[in-house]
Amino acid sequence: MTPRWGFPVRLTPQSLTSTIIVEPTLGLEVSQPSVDAPLGSTPSSDNYIMREGGLEPRPMLSLRQTSPQPMGNIPILGGLEAVDVTGVRSPVISGTTRWGWYSNGSWSVLSYVSAFGIDNPPAGTNTDYWDMTQIYSDLRDENFVVGGNGSYQTLYCHQSNTTIFSSLTGAPRARYLTPFDNYLLAFNIREGTSDFVQRVRWNDRGSISSWTGGLSGFEDLLDLRGQGTRILPLENRIILFSDAEVWQGFPVDFPFVFRFQPLDRSLGCPYSWTAATTPLGIMFLGKDYQVYLLSKSGGPAQPIGQRLHREIRTTIDQPQRSFAVYDNTFGQYQLYYPIKGGSGRPQRAVYLDIAGGSWAPQSFDRISGNLSPTRGFEAQLSSSATTWGGLQAAGIRWADLTMSWAELAGASEERAVFLGSSNGTMYYLNSNATSDNGTPVESRWRSSALQGFEPERQKTVTQWRVDYQADSSSSLTVRFSQNQGASFDLGTRINLPVASGLSQSRVDPYVSARYPMFEITSEAQRYRAFRFYVEMRRGGR
Q: Would you list the DSSP string of 412-456?
């Protein structure tokens, strides 16, 4: 006989004991309560990165050999990797009044020299950030680094692989610049005593010192709202940001050179140095503290930071000092920003894994603020080989050597992110280091609240396991919470023996909660965690 209100619901029998598998790769998720967050998402994390299916402590700040403070206790305000026409790479940095470079294993200061009677060395302030780029000059058959800062003083140039820099003859006074099709374009310009914040100027093609003849020219973007904040190339076009809009420019046929038009009038990029070019397009921080992507495929900017939007907007301070770097080696967009109650310089960062789409928060000495990064860029780290000339200069004979020539070579190359700090120290992110140049770094990752779909049942966690890899003996601590993260127990330390392949460690807790949650922490360790298993009993005994 059929019941009056239809057939009764038949519940599928379930085991009293179940195992939840958590793969921690979805990244930060603070846009909804942790009980609703998907398994593998992160309601809270610090100093872990999530990429290639695993969770690992972030690379740490390390010094690169000698002279880490080439310009003294002056904030690093700009930098890039310079490459000469023979392929020699030499990172170049800038401060308030000086430029420096990395060569032969150490940092040193570049000497300013006058050019054609122009003697006007840099004289900026601690907030006059530099926009630096590189362009080829056919007159010298060499690449030049060109830079301008927020003081509108002038543009400066440095010929690759030399020890000097000077004012760029004939150049305008501009804040932002970029190369495109062998033109050097300058944006947001001062002429005399007037600021033309929507003006774009470009040089005669191939001649970085000729700004008034040939194909050189300018255009005032009178319909552009706000003032220019950045100019970058993107595929076959130029992107111009103001604090209110996004425009684009294209090369056109003679007698014209470029044509400019609006691309997105709904938002801009008020924080110049957060814009970075990635394989997907240009990523930047908007006025609403949302991260946007301007796709290289075309179209207006799209938000991509919804999962961490609340995290940034509630903690960021002095956003004009924020900056971003794209790490090609690991495929990460890295956004660094100051925090409320901090040093006034970036002490917090979020890394976006381009392949997986996961955001991972980072912090840098949040207590003292001595490690606050100010600007960053990716460059090649090189270890020079031993040369016979170097041995002769040191008075070493062949008969004195105890190693073979191959052992003495020692040449190596790798790419890394360089970060300049507020006290002028140059660091790089080292995946093998276990501290930020001696400052301890705690890595912490927290799971979402488990079994949120069964709010009426109490659960008891009886076993926890982790799949991992470790090149050296490591350890971590696992803690459980019975109140969705309001507090955690003392925790249990777990050893992670060396494992080049996949290995597993376990702990047997006894934690009862309606929504169990766990947290792992470690310090000075290098390992990769791929999967967590949480075994729990549903209901009473």
A: EEEEEEEEEETTS-EEEEETT-SSBTTB--EEEEEPPPTTTT-TT
Of 460, 538, 464, 465, nearest to 504 by C-alpha is 465
Q: For residue 398, report the phi and psi dihedrals to the nearest 5 degrees.
A: -60, -40
Is the backbone of residue 6 left (phi > 0), alpha (psi -120 to 50) or beta? left
List per-residue pLDDT tens for the chain, 541 residues long.
445 555 454 454 456 788 889 999 899 999 888 888 888 899 999 999 998 899 999 999 999 877 899 888 999 999 999 999 988 889 999 999 999 999 888 899 999 999 877 888 999 899 999 999 999 988 888 999 999 999 999 999 999 889 999 999 999 999 999 999 999 999 999 999 999 999 999 999 989 999 998 999 999 999 999 999 999 999 999 999 999 999 999 999 888 899 999 999 999 999 999 999 999 999 999 999 999 999 999 999 999 999 999 999 999 999 999 999 999 999 999 999 999 999 999 999 999 999 999 999 999 988 787 889 999 999 987 655 455 555 565 566 666 665 555 555 555 578 899 999 999 999 999 999 999 999 999 999 999 999 877 777 888 999 999 999 999 999 999 999 999 889 999 999 999 999 999 999 999 999 999 999 999 999 999 999 999 999 998 875 5
Residues in the chain: 541
With CA atoms as reference, report the closest residue to 374 among 158, 128, 178: 128
For the entire predicted model, the pTM comes to: 0.90
Give 393's contacts (C-beta < 8 A, 6+ positions apart).
Answer: none
CA-nearest of 56, 12, 58, 49 to 427 is 58
Position of tokens 């001696």?
438
Q: Going by C-beta distance under 8 Å and a sequence separation of 6 or more, which residues neighbour residue 213? A: 204
Tokens found for residue 12: 């599928």
Distance CA 77, CA 69 (A): 13
DSSP state of 59: P
What residues does 14 pair with on adjacent strands? none
